[in-house]
Amino acid sequence: MRILIAPDKFAGTLTAVEAAAAIEEGWRRRDPEAEVLVAPMADGGPGFIDVLSAVVDGKLLSVTVRGPLGVDTPATILLAGETAYLETAQACGLHLVEPKERRPEEASTYGVGQLIAAAVDAGAKRIILGLGGSGTNDAGAGLLAALGATATRTGTAHPGAATADGATGDPAIARAEVDGPGADGAAAGEGDVARLDGGAAGLAGLGAVDLQPARDRVAGIEFVAASDVENPMLGLRGATNVFGSQKGIADERKPEVDGWLTHFAELADRKTADKKGAGAAGGLGYALLLLGAERVSGIDLVAELTGLKQKASQVDLVLSGEGAFDFQSRDGKVIAGVAKVANDAMRPCVVLAGKVLIGSREMRSMGVESAYALVDAVGEEQAFADPHGSLAVVAERVAKTWAR
Ligand SMILES: O=C(O)[C@H](O)CO
Q: How far is 197 from 201, CA to CA, in rounded Å?
């Protein structure tokens, strides 16, 4: 039997490379003679650079950038000739901050702008950024700030609006940035310089923004935003309402936070906020679109660079997987992308997941024949205690049904 193993990461437990190894191990217990092709996948989120560095001929540059809450964070640029690949989650990912430390309304994408600047300084003319898995929701304002965009504020102090010296309408909200002469919470006046790197909360009291310095900094650079989702930035299908909960934004806070992003978009460019992918990575997609980026599907890009289509046509069965196979897996995510490639090649696609939270009709409409859950096979405790072993157990069971 010939199989292709093309999983996503199992978030919080296994990288895509590790998941592929566990599936292969389990499958071989039942079918030792199998011809196995392996293609770990990513959709733009965490794992993007790991997966691409295995197939793109380039060198890795190490840089240090500001993490979502200002802590120095290591990141890697994959430079192939004049093309640089960046994984934005390395600078603003949800996984970078412990759950109890998360302050999603303050988290900033400033470090992503630093990554871009480093790529430009290294000679990149085309920058391909993977978007997804972020812990930020700042409309990409931090990214724009790191590249030189500036802002002023209104006379009315909105709660949480940080000025350049750290003074804020509500010092508690902007405490991560408060360290300057304004830390006593002194009221700021209309026209004062405001900061764009204080997260979503910092957008509240902005009076005007000037993106031109950022555009000048990256003039002549071609951007490609490879995102995991197509959502717009604002409203019910937008970044805050759909992805806010997983970052720790409480339901009752969402209208206000969405309002801050709306206010920013009204100052910068309201129409762009409605474009496909503007809502990816908490609105980072929006900031990149403002810099002229072309938006593509992250999984399609990874599938193309890893030769997934060709590999699928050489096998009898395609296996994919991820931590939670749920409604979010439908659009733009790894499983949907792999299933589409398998279907185009007329090969069955089977999913192995930590949890399966999707009905069989929905699964089939995505082109997935069957899905097997680790928690059903070994129980939740064991699945988390030994994710590699548990995934191998499930892969062995899948082989029992599917190997011939
Ligand atoms: O980072 C996020 O907000 C989600 O993965 C959607 O892009």
A: 10
Task: Provide the residue type at 291 as one letter.
Answer: L
Specify the pLDDT at position 188: 60
Which ligand 1 atom is the nearest neighbour of the CA of 45? 5
Please indicate whether residue 334, judged by its CB atom, sits closer than 6 Å to ligand 1: no
User: Which letter does DSSP use for residue 188 in this model?
Assistant: P
Pick from 88, 228, 258 the residue to mutate for probing ligand 1's pocket: most ligand atoms within 8 Å of its CB.
228
Chain segment 315-331, per-residue pLDDT in tens: 999 999 999 998 777 77
The 8-class DSSP code of residue 163 comes to B
What is the three-class DSSP state of 241? Answer: helix
Q: What is the ipTM of this complex?
A: 0.99
Note the pTM of the prediction, 2 decimals: 0.88
CB 367 within 8 A of CB 388: no
CA distance 347 to 315: 8
Residues in Cβ contact with 218 at an 8 Å cutoff, skipping those fewer than 6 apart: 116, 120, 147, 291
> Is 280 near ligand 1, meaning CB less than 6 Å away?
yes
What are 194-216's pLDDT values in tens digits? Answer: 999 999 999 998 999 999 999 99
Quickly list DSSP for 76-139: EEEEETTEEEEETHHHHBGGGS-GGG--TTT---HHHHHHHHHHHHTT-SEEEEEE-SBS--ST
Q: Is the CB of 104 under 6 A from ligand 1?
A: no
pLDDT recorded at residue 294: 98
Atom of ligand 1 nearest to the CA of 285: 7
Q: Can you tell me which atom of ligand 1 is nearest the CA of 243?
A: 3
